[in-house]
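User: Can you recover a sequence for this backbone? Please restate the input before giving your answer.

Assistant: Of course. Working from this structure:
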């Protein structure tokens, strides 16, 4: 919610009800605890496989490493959010840690969105535009620069959150909140607020969502005319997971953020309870990302099977499968072996 920093500030009924609802706080904390356990386990294993066991580092692998970094950062921040919830929305770690935790939350969301878009574009070029892809394949150095650019864009948009004290004293409840009461004077004018919301919702979410959807729908249409049913099934599963992350994890939070802020600024109404719950569910993307890696990268699948000893295929069967995937999985450009797997080699 938004409020002024004046001493006469009063909570709206919706936000007060949220702060006083112990059951909601416990439920959100339980979800965060489950997400933290799955996040750190799944993404910790993914990071080890991607960094130390997967080679060569193709552009898609680099994008997946970038995605894993943001997920692990969220996993490290969630315990602080759990403690905050269980203490009745009282933040005792100071303004700096509040800013760090808030920025980590939103950086994870929007870096994930942009990284999934990059992976979708990579798959689109490799499957739908293979001729042009061979000539314009993204180099590893460009992939690294793209990841740095993503972080730069996201942090630039989130700059107001990085430079503002996001804690707020609520004397009537005896608590200090963290990003649950957002000061109206964080930005100087309503135009600045409009630009901030537009950048977050439309630039960092809606546009990448449209691009990602176009890429995966185009890939599915292309593969629907192909007889390689195994590859087709895998890429459809990948597209389903990616679009699930967008629609279930990211879309509700961004839509409610826009609606709540507009209602609060202009009509003195609130959707904060729904927004708070959507922010909680947005963290589930970090649990689904390892599944994206599995369906996106042949190398990742093979290394994972080696680690957990799931060699269900004989060497002959494996060779047959490798040959079956070879059309999409690899190509030689200038003597360098590059992976062009159906899924990003990753949402």
């Amino acid at each position: 919610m938004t409020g002024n920093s004046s001493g006469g500030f009063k909570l709206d009924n919706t936000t007060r009800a949220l702060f006083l609802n112990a059951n909601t706080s416990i439920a959100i904390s339980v979800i965060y605890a489950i997400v933290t356990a799955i996040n750190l386990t799944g993404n910790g294993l993914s990071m080890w496989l991607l960094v130390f066991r997967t080679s060569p580092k193709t552009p898609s692998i680099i994008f997946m490493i970038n995605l894993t970094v943001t997920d692990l950062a969220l996993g490290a921040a969630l315990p602080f959010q759990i403690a905050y919830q269980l203490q009745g929305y009282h933040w005792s770690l100071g303004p700096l840690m509040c800013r760090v935790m808030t920025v980590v939350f939103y950086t994870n969301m929007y870096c994930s969105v942009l990284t999934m878009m990059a992976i979708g574009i990579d798959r689109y070029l490799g499957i739908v535009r293979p001729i042009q892809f061979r000539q314009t394949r993204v180099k590893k150095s460009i992939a690294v620069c793209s990841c740095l650019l993503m972080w730069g864009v996201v942090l630039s948009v989130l700059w107001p959150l990085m430079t503002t004290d996001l804690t707020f004293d609520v004397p009537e409840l005896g608590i200090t909140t963290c990003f649950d009461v957002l000061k109206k004077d964080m930005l100087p004018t309503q135009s600045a607020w409009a630009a901030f919301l537009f950048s977050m919702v439309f630039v960092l979410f809606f546009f990448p969502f449209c691009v990602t959807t176009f890429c995966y729908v185009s890939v599915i249409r292309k593969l629907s005319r192909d007889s390689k049913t195994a590859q087709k099934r895998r890429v459809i599963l990948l597209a389903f997971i990616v679009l699930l992350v967008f629609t279930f994890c990211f879309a509700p939070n961004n839509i409610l953020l826009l609606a709540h802020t507009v209602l609060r600024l202009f009509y003195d109404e609130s959707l904060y309870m729904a927004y708070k719950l959507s922010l909680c569910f947005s963290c589930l993307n970090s649990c689904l990302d390892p599944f994206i890696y599995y369906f996106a990268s042949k190398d990742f699948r093979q290394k994972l099977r080696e680690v957990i000893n799931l060699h269900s295929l004989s060497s002959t069967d494996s060779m047959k499968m490798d040959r079956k995937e070879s059309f999409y999985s690899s190509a030689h450009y200038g003597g360098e072996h590059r992976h062009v797997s159906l899924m990003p080699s990753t949402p």
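That completes the design. The two ends are 29 Å apart (CA to CA).
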